[in-house]
Each structure stands twice: as C-alpha cells, then as structure tokens.
Amino acid sequence: MSESASTGQVKILLVDDRPENLLALEAILQGLGHQLLRAGSGEEALKHLLGEEVSLILLDVQMPGMDGFETAEHVKRREKTRDIPIIFLTALEAGGHQAFRGYSAGAVDYLAKPFDPWVLRAKVGVFIELHEQRRALQRQRDRLQRRAQRDAEEMLALLERVEVATADAPPDVTARLQPPLAALRERLEERRR
C-alpha cells in the first residue's frame, strides 16, 4: 500500500509546460490537503504515473512535444491509470471541436483559462471524492471475491469428504448422488477461479 493510501492523502498531478501556471494551480489547490505533483510536459506526467498512485490529473492542452490530448490518450490506454479522472485546462477557445476532442481523449471535464479558482476547487473536490469512492468499491469487490474463493475452497474440501463418505453407498444411492455432486463441484470450481 502506498504512503498516500495509508494516510488518506490523495495525489493530484498538475501538468503544464509553464511554471507560472503550475505555481498558480498549487496556490489554488494547496489548502485542500492533497499532495500536489508537478509535471512540465506530457512525458514527465507519464513518468510520474509509473511510480505514483494519482487520484486526479489537471492537464494543460497546449504543450510542446506531447500535447494534453496525446498525454490523456496514453493515460487512458494503461490498465493502471485508465480510471484516473482528467480535467483539461486550456487557453484555447473552448469551441465545440476542442471540447469534443478533450472528452474523446478521456477527460471528465474541460475548463477554459482563465477559470474561476473556486469552480476549479469545487470540481477537484467532486472528482477526488468520486475517484476515491470508486477505489473503495474496487477494494470491497476484491475482498468479497477473495472471500468467495475461500468459501468455495472450503466447500470443495467438504464436498470431497462427502464423496469419500458416499463411495461405499449402495449403487442406486451413488447413482442418484453423482449428478448433483458433480454439478456442485463444477459450480464451486468456477467460483474458486
């Protein structure tokens, strides 16, 4: 478990090629209690995502080299990062084509600069909460799946004892028991996987 997961602190990745924009984002978000990670390019953002468990990405659209759209496409292709919400930030005219391209690349929201700091803070709060709820549900699903596998293994062990105990039963009893026991074994084997 990562340090941020154990302390409850989430990480937000801020991606912009202009240091002054990163500084402004940090100033807006610093009071929320989240760890803010900086990346000056799409490539640097992808490197962060290799080793960090990030809960939200604020991503500038216009950057030299790998732009925000291409960066988002890379993020969404990876199993580990595909569910991280991305909010695009752009100085471009927020025309329909650009917004559509942002949503197509996997963004959950698209804000045009200059944006209202309070709106950004509110959106960050909502998307962090949704992402954390999704992760909590995933952890619960994993626990339930492990429990179901353990229960299936226990039931299979019990079934083996029943099969051994009925092996010496009269042939007519054995013939009646074999189909339901075989069906039960098959269902338990599936559940154990």
From TrEMBL:
Residue ranges that the Swiss-Prot or TrEMBL entry lists as coiled coil: 127-161
Start and end residues of each Response regulatory domain: 11-128
Keywords from the UniProt entry: Coiled coil, Phosphoprotein
Gene3D superfamilies from the UniProt entry: 3.40.50.2300
GO biological process terms, semicolon-separated: phosphorelay signal transduction system
Entry-linked InterPro entries: Bact_response_regulator (IPR050595), CheY-like_superfamily (IPR011006), Sig_transdc_resp-reg_receiver (IPR001789)
Residues annotated with 4-aspartylphosphate modification: D60
Keyword Phosphoprotein: yes
Pfam families: Response_reg
Stated name of the protein: Response regulator receiver domain-containing protein
Source organism of this protein record: Kineococcus xinjiangensis
